[in-house]
Design a protein that fits this description.
The complex is a heterodimer of chains A (161) and B (210). Chain A is mostly helical. Chain A is built from six helices and no strands. Chain B is mainly α and 210 residues long. The longest helix of chain B has 23 residues.
């Protein structure tokens, strides 16, 4: 029963094959296609022609030798600019040179070490004797020793110092 | 089913290749590949009616059908150099048309109005039509124009996959094997889709058949 109903629906759908355009449609369709195809081919050939003419103009107006010279010069210029940019001296010292060699952490265990290092790194002051105009060995520089502390013989030798 | 985005399908070799019939279009295809535009025009002329039917019954719109068909042949012409003759030209171009139509239907607005061709008056002499009008009052009373509207509405209610197999099998009378080859699916899948599509059509046309 269901098969028959399904078959009836199929028979109705099959009637759709009677829907079709008029005969002239198919003739016009082929003509339209030819026109489209021809215009596409013309577009492609126009593009090809333009490229061909451009390449011919390039070959004629800029000869191969001249092109090689100009091209070589251009490549050399670009190379020189790049080389100069790569080898230009630095205006400031690199970071590795300005950075302290030993970095001291401010922790409890290293406080003493830090202090020692800071002392080491502190600039050494040149300590010169103050100018007094005095000549060493003067009587004023003699060691004054209380009488009776040293034996009599030793006094003389001390005096010589 | 092949991916709809791939518009120029790979050629599907015929399983019985040693015994298969030579492609009747081989000469025209060879000449067209060598740049003979007249040979390709002959192929266009030969296959336009068949491909028109495929696209039209899937879209129910004659303007869309015309545009899709122009694109199908233009694409086939450009891709002709890649055609190696592993399948027949007919199968190859049919696959292109199917894929392009499926792609179009995915993008098309669902509310697109139908634009139908005239119905050939030869329908009045068709046995199925005579039987339908004699058995069913609604069909007889509706007239050809309304019958056409109802059939197209029912087709558009089907999913695209189901509509494709119904178009190929019921309207274009293609065998299961050929449909399977064109769609890149098994014959079992074709039969299964047809079964469900027919059940749906039966439901859509229920009130019309009684």
């Amino acid at each position: 029963m269901e098969m028959n109903e399904s078959e009836a629906a199929r028979r109705l759908i099959r009637l759709k094959r009677y829907e079709s355009p008029r005969d002239e449609y198919f003739r016009n369709f082929v003509d339209e296609f030819k026109e489209r195809q021809r215009s596409e081919m013309l577009r492609q050939s126009a593009r090809g022609l333009l490229l061909e003419r451009l390449s011919m103009w390039f070959e004629e107006s800029v000869g191969a030798k001249r092109f090689a010279t100009v091209g070589g010069l251009a490549v050399a210029s670009v190379g020189a600019i790049l080389w100069l940019a790569a080898t230009r001296p630095e205006t400031s010292l690199p970071d590795s040179l300005t950075r302290p060699a030993l970095k001291v952490e401010r922790s409890e265990g290293t406080n003493e070490l830090a202090r020692l290092v800071a002392e080491e790194a502190a600039p050494i002051e040149l300590q010169l004797p103050a100018r007094s105009g005095r000549v060493p060995g003067n009587a004023e520089d003699r060691l004054t020793i209380a009488p009776g502390v040293l034996p009599a013989g030793a006094r003389g030798s001390l005096r010589e110092l | 089913m092949p991916a709809p985005t791939e518009l120029v399908p790979d050629e599907v070799p015929n399983p019985g290749s040693p015994l298969r019939r030579p492609d009747p279009d081989l000469d025209l295809v060879e000449r067209a590949r060598e740049g003979d535009t007249r040979a390709f025009d002959a192929l266009v002329e030969k296959y336009t009616p068949k491909l028109y039917g495929l696209v039209y019954h899937m879209t129910s719109n004659r303007e869309d059908t015309n545009d899709i068909l122009q694109d199908v042949f233009a694409k086939a012409y450009r891709a002709l150099k890649r055609f190696r003759g592993k399948s027949s030209f007919y199968t190859w171009i049919y696959s292109i048309a199917t894929n392009m139509t499926l792609n179009f239907l995915k993008k098309r607005n669902r509310r697109r109005t139908m634009s139908l061709d005239d119905v050939d008056l030869a329908i009045e002499h068709d046995r199925d039509f005579i039987e339908a009008t004699s058995k069913s009052d609604p069909v007889r009373e509706a007239g050809i124009s309304e019958l056409q509207q109802r059939l197209n509405m029912a087709m558009q209610k089907l999913s695209v996959d189901h509509r494709t197999v119904v178009t190929m099998f019921d309207i274009q009378a293609m065998p299961h094997a050929e449909i399977a080859k064109i769609l890149g699916i098994s014959e079992g899948t074709v039969r299964s889709r047809l079964f469900y599509a027919h059940r749906q059509l039966q439901a859509f046309l229920e009130d019309f058949r009684k």
